[in-house]
UniProtKB/TrEMBL annotation:
This is Glutamate-1-semialdehyde 2,1-aminomutase. It is found in: Cytoplasm. It comes from the Bacteria. InterPro entries: 4pyrrol_synth_GluAld_NH2Trfase, Aminotrans_3, Aminotrans_3_PPA_site, PyrdxlP-dep_Trfase, PyrdxlP-dep_Trfase_major, PyrdxlP-dep_Trfase_small.
Amino acid sequence: MSLSFKKSQAAYEEAKKVIPGGVNSPVRAFKAVGNHPVFIQSGQGAHVTDIDGNELIDYICSWGPLIFGHNDKAVQEAVLSAVQNGTTFGMPTEIETTMAAKIIELIPSIEKVRMVSSGTEATMSALRLARGYTGREKIVKCGGCYHGHADHLLIQAGSGAMTFGVPSSPGVPENIAKETLTATYNDIASFKQLFEAYKDQIAAVIIEPIPGNMGLILPDQGFLEDLRTLTEANGTLLIFDEVISGFRASLGGAQKRFNIMPDLTCLGKIIGGGLPVGAFGGKAEVMDHLAPFGEVYQAGTLSGNPLAMTAGYTTLCELQKRDPYTQLEEKGKQLKEGLEEAAQKHGVPVSINHLGSLLTVFFTDQPVHSYADAQTSSTEAYRIFFESLLAEGIHLPPSQFECWFISTAHQDSDIEATLKAADHAFKAVAE
Ligand code: PLP
């Protein structure tokens, strides 16, 4: 089987005439896999249908929001009902309080929360708050972690920026970049060195507790605990960017799974239920420094949008009700083990990182614990693998350095079909 994507190719040519690179977010252009993107018509469950009429098994799931897959009935019905009342008011609605209370109930370290419209806004605002609260200017992030595209966070960023080999972006002023220090994930000594060199100057450490933007990396035993101790000892806020891991690593995010309490948490993706939402929250004592009663300014025309709140709130309630985490963990494991077996059969060296419904296949013969390890992965092997799977109707993320997202809608039959196609894809890589 080899699918045709002629209409998508033509649509991409049209899009490029009016949209820079033909897409509204760089990774969608398939540049890292040397192809053209697939244009989507609709989605249902674990599948998307493209404009050529191909039905594809989707492991992007909108890059994480769709933990129940596409067009989940409960979420769809709630949004359809909410839209009858209007789409936005710019004045308070009760659903915002309901949503905030639900987040506080589920995420252990959050006592107060402010809603925004994207993950980028969440991290950007959390850092301003951390700087305002501590009166310090420097921040620390890890090489390979991605926290959205605000100037001070686009330094050694992962995700699209990693694939394109741009450590930071033109347009980021040097004066801003120099306030961002970079450490190495899973290497506490690299943080200690920064704290010694910049004593009493570091406002916050921002980190993906489970990095997903250099491919999936898991925290080594004790690393996050040590970081918590170190930041506390230095009067520095620890910010967990749980935009991916929130409500995915567990219902209470990575912090609940590993039992480590950050000072601030950034959320996005799943809390929007597929609509544009982000949030940041934490200790009330810190959050109360935000305007209007505090001095740190932060705002948004569509923040707390009632449709987005409805989609998000419904998703969180459904997660509580359906409790899908054991089942998702099992599906991820099944996929990982099947992929390992197929790779081994064809003599292709891979290292597969997996946690719950997140997974990355690195084309390398060494374990991947760090940004440097991830970079040993063969992007050419991934390109062949990706292309071969797509030709058989399996849509992986179009970059080596991203997570595959599994949803509750992925059935055994989807996983079996994926493994069958992966057998051919590893064969193609081996040739
Ligand atoms: N933080 C993390 C960990 C992310 O993965 C992303 C996006 O993928 C962001 C922040 C930025 O979120 P958004 O794309 O909604 O601005």
